[in-house]
Fold each of these.
Amino acid sequence: MSAAGSRGAAERADETLIRAAIAAAAAADPRDVPVGAVVFDAAGRELARAANAREALGDPTAHAEVLALRRAAAVHGDGWRLEGCTLAVTLEPCTMCAGALTLARIGRLVFGAWEPKTGAVGSLWDVVRDRRLNHRPEVRGGVLESDCAALLDTFFHAQRP
Ligand SMILES: [Zn+2]
């Protein structure tokens, strides 16, 4: 396969992962900002998914990524480690989630929309690719960006009086 051909296939595969994260976001409580995250193992099998549930759980740490990482670790069978796994999330992770996914040793991060106000994977900071860290996941951002941003736009639009 040509380099262009394999790149196209990889992009399509990432879009499939983000579509799963979009589906996870759609399950968010109506009070919660719709962000969804899904963890896949090295073979591409889904381990866990979650939506942001800060309002639903009254928990400041209940971001989609943290909830999905916890659930994935519980079923993955290597303690807290998620080595070789991929995290797909609809929005660029914040500092907490970027830290959590790095600590979980996620191998690859794929995200949808960029978050210029709080993003910690390139926008405001780049926590996951800090060269001082031992573990640095591979990253791809901006996958199905407009679909992911549309979820948020719809939510915030409905919030306005
Ligand atoms: Zn977060």
Amino acid sequence: MAAMEVAKICFRSYKNKSFCVYRLAERCLLNKYGLINVRHLSTHRGPNMANTRKGSTLMFGLFGISMGALVGAGYSYHKMSQANAPLINKELDITPVLEKLPDVQISREVTSPGDTTDLKLTLFQYPTCPFCCKVRAFLDYYGFSYQIVEVNPVLRQQIKWTDYKKVPIVLANVEDGYQQLNDSSMIISALTSYLHDRDQGLKDIVKCYPCIEFNDESGNVKKEILNRYFLMYQGNIPQGRSKEDILEERKWRKWADDVLVHVLSPNVYRTREEAMQAFNWFSEVGEWEKHFAAWERYMIIYVGAHAMWIIGKRLKKRHNLKDDVRLSLYDTCNHWTKSLNKQGTKFMGGDTPNLSDLAVYGVLNSIEGCIAFQDLIDNTKIGTWYNDMKDKVQSHAGYAAMNA
Ligand SMILES: N[C@@H](CCC(=O)N[C@@H](CS)C(=O)NCC(=O)O)C(=O)O
């Protein structure tokens, strides 16, 4: 019964388009006690219930159908009026300057003697989230020093201080406190713009990435961080860069988020065995043994893997992937390597990586411990570029650019 509920939660998480299994685990556990209550309620019977059961079944059935119809009609009406509601473009203030760092435990520190920024960055993350891996690839490549706060996937108390409900989040030291940066692409764009011209001031740069809330055409409230793929060069384009090359970089960064990320889940959970292996790896990297009791961890791994295996098939349809999703993974990555070959350079950025190389590398890096990743390396030519990227990132090869 509990297992059924975990599976249902996985499907709910799929409907909400949640990418990370961490959120799935959270939902499983947060609902745990609720689920148990539901079970008790539904199996509880009053003393005369057995006798009256047959007679009342019809009544309850009719009542249920009428209520269902009423609720359905009400919901459709609500959705229709929402869809017809005017679009609201409300600007949200979710990137404030905090007076001091939130009172959270720092999990580890990455120190780079070459960091001359004094930004004292703090990254709030889940270790295998593709968006967080993207930010780490960027920070490591340029040789930023930063602290990492591992967000507890169950309670997420480490990010309770903010209204922004996702990771990654970065806090950066500014003159009057700590500037909050949300969304992987915005974090990368804002910090790159800052490296280009530190006189702009990070606080002013952040103002170029407002977050707005609006109703989409189906009436759902959506939030979006505007300009997140744009670098704020303020007309002062760096030497050696052209407008075309900046546009191309932007296009590929967007591709990493809109296309590449979506082939990952169906591949990582392609078969039951792969899903189990992936969940075991997530458990290891995310140190689930610290967060969950052994039985909870096994249940999440087992039930979660099976549910995600089924959900993976739906995601395959949603994103129009091939019947054998591995082919879509190969195709997507081949599209990247073919474009590189056509360009005739080692990296998309030329002799050195640019932000699109870092984005694609970061996203792929998030599945490095999964069977799908090894399969990808064995069956495509992306390995050469990937390993070159790994060398560049791990050796902080962008350090010179930071100090240019
Ligand atoms: N567009 C965001 C997406 C971030 C995102 O979806 N993060 C997931 C983790 S992989 C998350 O925190 N989800 C929270 C939730 O589902 O409530 C980015 O690029 O940073």
